[in-house]
Structure formats: C-alpha cells, structure tokens
Amino acid sequence: MDDLIRTANGAVALLCTIGLSWVVLSRRVNEGLVVKLGLVAMAIGLGVTALITFGDIEIQRGLRNAGFFTRCGLLVVIVGVLCRARARRHPRRRASDFVPLGDGRAAP
After folding, report:
1. 3-state secondary structure string, 15-51?
2. Mean pLDDT of the chain
3. Which one of 23, 46, 76, 82 has the largest count of C-beta atoms within 10 Å of its C-beta?
4. Considering the entire predicted model, what is its pTM?
5. What is the C-alpha separation between 99 and 90, in angstroms, rounded?
6. pLDDT tens track for 67-87
C-alpha cells in the first residue's frame, strides 16, 4: 500500500508539472510576470518531488525542500492574482492593458 501511495504521489506531481509547464509556456494564457514566476516555482518544486519519488532513494529533506518551494510558488501566485485583481479596479487602467500584445485586435 505504501508503494502505491508513493507511485501515485509521483505520478500526480509529474502530471501537475506538465500542466504547469504548459500554462507557463502557452501564449494563450496571459497571466502576468508575478504569477508566471510563481507557476515556474511550483513546476520546479513538483518536478523535483516527482524525481525524488520515482528515484531509488527517498530523501526526506529533499521532499521537504521541494514542498516548501512549491508552497512558496503558490504564495507568489496568490499575491500576484490579488495584486492584479486590485489593479483592474483602478480608474486609470485601460482596457487595452488586458489584451495580449501583437495580436492586431482592438480592445473591447
């Protein structure tokens, strides 16, 4: 049972790493610099978790550090989303600030 949980943990961490990497590299997702940095930190932390979990030796210190890195990335994402949500209500913001650059479309 312990091996099943360990394998499932590694598989989910690997799938989350792939998903977060797609979000970071995709041009269709316009998340901003701060959120992107948090997503990169989360992807690295989850990738290291998957590597350690699928490795032969389980390093508890490495798992703790990878978990800490993942949670720091999550905190950065939360702060970035809150700052972005607060900035949208500012009266001097333009509607064109939220359109991806270079697509040739006018702001709604």
Report:
1. HHHHHHHHHHHCCCCCCCHHHHHHHHHHHHHHHHHHH
2. 82
3. 46
4. 0.73
5. 17
6. 999 999 999 999 988 888 777
Residue 99 DSSP label: S
One-letter amino acid of 80:
G
Using CA atoms, how far apart are residues 70 and 47, in angstroms rounded to an integer?
10
Is residue 106 predicted with pLDDT exceeding 70?
A: no
C-beta pairs of 43-46 under 8 Å, 24+ apart in sequence: 43/16, 43/17, 43/73, 44/69, 44/73, 45/69, 45/70, 45/71, 45/72, 45/73, 46/13, 46/14, 46/16, 46/17, 46/20, 46/70
